[in-house]
């Protein structure tokens, strides 16, 4: 076990929870720790690039994809979402308080060398293709996560 290694499972696609995951991840990386973020199930929506499309999907995969948020700009809040007004208010307050927005946090995470892994099994179940994901994301299964987690001093589930 290494005290300078951290892993975070990002299961949620709630904007506030995802922000917390990236704040912790970038904070740890800025302190010199090695960080791996493993995105699974709803958390995969964070990695979906709104500008990218995937072809060759089945009808059900297309339907599933249409029902899920595509990218960080479409995420809702876990509390007080109020049909999308909550996230807009949160973004306004973040901008007013000079808090980094999620797209910037993701870019910073990549610049800090944080490894972002998309769960291959969840991608299959949810019909998400690699071509839809933001650049720099690795694909891995539970063995990938467990390998990283077994070495880490801190493992978080968000």
Automatic annotation (TrEMBL):
Organism the protein comes from = Caldicellulosiruptor owensensis (strain ATCC 700167 / DSM 13100 / OL)
Which keywords does the record carry?
A: Membrane, Transmembrane, Transmembrane helix
Q: What protein does this entry describe?
A: Peroxiredoxin family protein
The protein's matches in Pfam families, at most eight in alphabetical order, are given as:
DrsE_2 (PF13686)
**Residue spans crossing the bilayer:** 20-44
Leader sequence range is none
């Amino acid at each position: 076990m290494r005290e300078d290694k951290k892993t975070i499972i990002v299961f949620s696609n709630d904007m506030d929870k995802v922000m917390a995951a990236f704040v912790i991840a970038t904070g740890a990386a800025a302190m010199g720790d090695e960080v791996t973020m493993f995105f699974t199930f709803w958390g995969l929506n964070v990695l979906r690039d709104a500008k990218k499309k995937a072809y060759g999907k089945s009808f059900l995969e297309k339907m599933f994809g249409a029902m899920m948020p595509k990218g960080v700009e479409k995420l809702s809040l876990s509390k007080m979402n109020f049909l999308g007004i909550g996230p807009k208010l949160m973004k306004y307050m973040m901008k007013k308080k000079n808090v980094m927005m999620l797209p910037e946090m993701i870019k910073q995470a990549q610049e800090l060398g944080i490894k972002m892994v998309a769960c291959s099994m969840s991608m299959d179940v949810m019909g998400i293709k690699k071509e839809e994901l933001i650049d720099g994301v690795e694909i891995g299964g539970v063995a990938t996560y467990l390998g990283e987690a077994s070495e880490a001093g801190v493992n978080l589930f968000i």
